[in-house]
Amino acid sequence: MRRRRLRIALLALPALVGTVLMATAPAGADPTKSTATGGSGRSSLEDQASVRLVRIQLTGADLLDKVVAAGFDLEHGLRRVPSGIEGEAVVTAEQVAELRAMGVTILGDDESFAWSDEADGGLQALGARSVQPLNHTETVRVVRADWFTTKGQGFLYVEARTTEGQQADPVVGMQLENDSGRGTPFGYARTMSRFVDSGQYMFHRNLFKLDARPKQIRVTSSTGGVTTGTVSNWLEDAPSPLTANPGYKWDFVDGYRTPQQLYSRAREIARQYPDIAEIVYLPNKTNGYQRKAQATIGGTGQEAVVVSSAAWGHEGGNDITVEFVDRPGADLPLAVEVAGKAIRVLLAKNASGGLASTAAEVAAALESGSQGLVDRAHPYRTNAGTGIVAATAGPVALTDFLDQKRAGAPEGEVPRGPATIPVLRIGKHRDGKKPGVLIQAQDHAREWVPATTSLEAAERLVHNYRSDRETKNIVDNAEVFFILSNNPDGANYSFYNFASQRRNLTNHCPDENADPARRNGWGVDLNRNYRVGSAHDGYSGASTSCVSDTFQGPAKLSEPEAKNIIWLVEKYSNIKFMMSVHSNGGQLFWQPGAYIADGRITTPRPPLGDEAFYWQSAARILSQVKAHRETVVTPENVGGSSDVLYSSAGNVREDLYHTYGIYAFGWEVGGSVYNPGTGNWQGGSFQPPWAGDPALVSGHAETMEYANGIMEMFRIAAEWGKDKKDPTSRLLPGDGTYRGSVDVRFETSEPATIYYTTDGSRPTLESPRYEATEFREPGQVFHVTETTTFRWFSVDAAGNIENNYDPTKNDRREKYRTATIRIVKR
């Protein structure tokens, strides 16, 4: 079986609906036409490089780490395939050659691609092998088998794991069979794909298109193991979304929004609805939509000089001109003259009357003699500056290369200078006593749909508070904090200069990467700038290169945008839920988010109870997404982000969960949509056409369906805050006498963490926790061979403890659970 997926171009900037207009300086634009240049001629070396999206294939996570660390911009939609990892890269023509030199296969940039679902070997002799019965140590386990439908087509997703999966010679293969419903035989044998990440076996998994829902599956390993599993429903029979309620108001956002428009609307909502909304201003101002004015003079050789102003471009840097002057005469010294904002460098002459100033000498003279107008002057990139500088044809104007105006925009110029980010706080009781939910959108500048999705959710809350019972319940029993754009500087740059901008605008680059042709590579990836699982501590998925799209920054929390998040959750300690909204890939994930590549050592995994709560919440959230137009986020795209996507060192979710105990989700909205007309899964993009085909790729449709999911997260938080019911648990098969040995496990009435002992001691919060058999699997099974007494208690996600037991006190009235497994020897 082969699948095909249609690729959507990333870089075609759509016409914007509403008051937002097309960027006036898109990728590849000629800076000589910018209003910031004053019409002066510019060097072609300062043109923004033309970029395009190409499909790539990497041999595995190790190569992925190298590509990311080298500064390449990889789109979020990475997919593990039997031969490694496939994805998309935003690259220039020069970078394509560099990728090939690193060992990356370029699959092309055509309209579609295909991959094989065949495994990497090991099944040829299966038909002749007799299957041996399993003992208590299972050699094959079904992790999950999920059925879902979308657009009239059924799909079966299966994950299975073998204890011998790490074996590579010969590679262990796996075969899947399924029935066609209750009472029908197994059949339709297909090979499953084996996945290895950073040298570690993960699982075998596949998504299969089927005509009928199976009841059971059978998985057989090439080494002889076999097991069966029951098929579950994934996002089937989803409850109606709030939009189905009579009189419910929705569909408020009619186009993409700049940061200024988002913030303006947030302030207006607070003004219109003061009884349930207010603005909280974050204390750390951003760098600002501003840059120093620059010019590269003299080409790229040893004679080239890069000049940067001391003042920001809009504060006078753009008025500076620099001229290199060849004077008549001989034996003349190098000198600098300044008249207003005009700098003239009088080049030195030798005894023969020839020019004698090197680029290094001119750069030093500019820094010392420009009367403070020039902040940095240096040879081009890694040059030593030994070449002799030539005279210019006239004054060269410095510019910050930023577009200053948006035609038709009501507020005129894009605001310059540091920005203060407002947080829209919605809740009837904003006193810290109700659970808080933080919605953080647009950490990455080019991701426009997360901002509109978040704004749509905010609009739904305030417009339906007085008329919709469920909305009133949310606002009365939870507080919501909306950061509609956490990266306003980068977002403005994405709208008006370079559509593919991902990071903020803070330039931490040294001279070798500080010339203006590098300007689209500056900035920090805000979602790599946090403290837990950071690349500073050896975790994979972030770069030390200042021109990498995953640049981690010079230090943890170096950026004001990241500091603000920590300030917010520390000031408002009632924040217990968080959604970092990104695009585009169609994933919903949580911890662990990063790992050390050598050995694939992840950050700590959540306890089984928290993991179960994440899965339960995900099913509810994604069911509401599906209810809009049947978009299905598949199970393979749900879970720990380092398991379903890649390692992302220093991400915000890890910090908030591990440091503050916040249930922190990451969401890649805008995933693939099944196209029944072609039988393909059609991918999204960072800036899909707003009014595209509503059944397929559409910014408007994505905004509405994922806003459904955010609203469901609010319902979860409100219910969590009112949850006072203790969980219950039991040991299966339970108290009793057994011959020989017995396998036992715990079961809970709801997602809950179990603390237990088997040594006769009283269970406490320091006791062992009941853990998963393996990641993405249910709880472990204890193989009991001697009489053993289990003592335990459970704690649910809201902190309720079973039977009102207090594990911190040594109370004679012990309320923990107990069960004795008595073993009678045969």
From TrEMBL:
<keyword id="KW-0732">Signal</keyword>
<dbReference type="InterPro" id="IPR000834">
    <property type="entry name" value="Peptidase_M14"/>
</dbReference>
<keyword id="KW-0378">Hydrolase</keyword>
<keyword id="KW-0482">Metalloprotease</keyword>
<feature type="domain" description="Peptidase M14">
    <location>
        <begin position="378"/>
        <end position="710"/>
    </location>
</feature>
<keyword id="KW-0862">Zinc</keyword>
<dbReference type="Pfam" id="PF00246">
    <property type="entry name" value="Peptidase_M14"/>
</dbReference>
<comment type="similarity">
    <text>Belongs to the peptidase M14 family.</text>
</comment>
<keyword id="KW-0645">Protease</keyword>
<dbReference type="Pfam" id="PF13290">
    <property type="entry name" value="CHB_HEX_C_1"/>
</dbReference>
<feature type="active site" description="Proton donor/acceptor">
    <location>
        <position position="668"/>
    </location>
</feature>
<protein>
    <recommendedName>
        <fullName>Peptidase M14 domain-containing protein</fullName>
    </recommendedName>
</protein>
<feature type="signal peptide">
    <location>
        <begin position="1"/>
        <end position="29"/>
    </location>
</feature>
<dbReference type="InterPro" id="IPR059177">
    <property type="entry name" value="GH29D-like_dom"/>
</dbReference>
